[in-house]
Amino acid sequence: MPTPYFLDSSAIVKCYLSEPGTAWMRSLFDSPDHELYIASIAGAEVIAAIARRVPAKSLPAAVARSVIAAFRADFANAYSVISISDAVIARAMHLAEQHHLRGYDAVQLAAALELHAIARSRAVNLMAVLVAADKELLAAAQSEGLRTVNPEDQPNEPF
């Protein structure tokens, strides 16, 4: 059974823009041995992260449009999207308070925990892995019992 990976927006961006951790993320994305999940809010977060680089002059507008188009296609076809239900929001509220997380980080963690519960219902030993480049989010996820990976800490060669 393939390993389910939950990708936070901080990790997803690395699939589309060259940053520390990009090679590892692209190898994860290109591997057929993994299931890649994202929260529905990641759509807005990733596009915002890319679009905000245009006025900052770190990304030409034409490149941003091309990258955004690629992400939109993958959002529709390559990722399994976890909807943000009332139950996920309620859990996110608790996680934000407990771990002092930013709002969207709490929602991302709640969605990852939802995926983890789904994975455990499929197979007792199956664990979801949260992939993020946000140290606070990773620490909170670990304290909630999730396996985590920071792509910035991984070797550049594919696994």
What features would you describe in this structure?
There is one protein chain. By secondary structure, the protein is α/β, with parallel strands linked by helices. It has a single domain (3-152), classed as Rossmann fold. It is built from seven helices and five strands. The protein has helices at 9-12, 22-30, 42-51, 61-77, 86-99, 103-122, 135-143, and strands spanning 3-7, 34-39, 80-82, 129-131, 147-149. It has a five-stranded parallel β-sheet. β4 (129-131), α7 and β5 (147-149) form a beta-alpha-beta unit. α3 (42-51) runs antiparallel to α4 and α5 packs across α6 (103-122). The longest helix has 20 residues, at 103-122. It is globular. It starts with a strand and ends in a 10-residue tail after the last strand. The model has no long low-confidence stretch (mean pLDDT 94).
Mean pLDDT: 94
The poorly predicted ranges are none
The structural class is alpha/beta
Beta content: 5-15%
Structural descriptors:
five-stranded parallel beta sheet; 13% strand; 159 residues; alpha/beta; 52% helix; Rossmann fold; globular; 5 strands
Summarize the structure.
With 159 residues, the chain is α/β, with parallel strands linked by helices. The protein has helices spanning 9-12, 22-30, 42-51, 61-77, 86-99, 103-122, 135-143, and strands spanning 3-7, 34-39, 80-82, 129-131, 147-149.
